[in-house]
Every structure is written in C-alpha cells, then in structure tokens.
Design brief:
Number of helices: 3
Distance between the termini: 29 Å
Shape: rod-shaped
Radius of gyration: 19 Å
Largest sheet: none
C-alpha cells in the first residue's frame, strides 16, 4: 500500500469519529433509561430478579461511559498532534 493511500484511509477514519461518538452516547442514554426503569419496576413489585437485571444494565452502562471518556481523550490527543488529519479538517 502506498503512503498516500494510508493517508486517505486515515482521513476517512477521522470522518467516522463523530458518528461513533453519537452511537456511544445513544448506547449510554438507552442503558440508563432501560436500567433505571428495570430497577424501579423491580423495587416497586418486590422482584429481585428484575431489579438485578436493571443493576446489571446500569453496570454495563458504566463501561460504555468509560468508552466515551476514552474516545474523547483519544480525540483530544489526535487534535493536538501536529499533522494529524483531524487537526487539518477541524480547526
């Protein structure tokens, strides 16, 4: 693969970053909503199983939120790197 093809591929990947972040945020929002509803329904009906599933979903959301934080940190690192495709496109 030629170096100019690698640069084009990197630029194409940079364009996908905002879509990936939107999907991560939607995943976090959906998890908080469904987990919270499940916990509340379980506690309201005295169902340990339903509440436990809700807590499991909320624990999974913690991992998704960690991905959002890591992605934002990686984007910031790329933005500050001289010569990166992101920096040249998003000043």
């Amino acid at each position: 693969m030629r170096p100019d093809q690698l640069a084009d591929e990197g630029a194409a990947r940079v364009e996908l970053i905002p879509a990936a972040l939107r999907l991560l945020w939607m995943s976090v929002a959906f998890g908080v909503l469904t987990g919270g509803v499940s916990v509340m329904a379980g506690l309201g009906d005295h169902s340990l199983g339903v509440a436990g599933v809700g807590l499991s979903v909320l624990a999974d959301v913690t991992g998704s939120a960690g991905l959002v934080v890591a992605a934002l940190a990686a984007i910031e690192a790329v933005r500050t790197t001289p010569g990166s495709p992101w920096r040249s496109r998003h000043r």
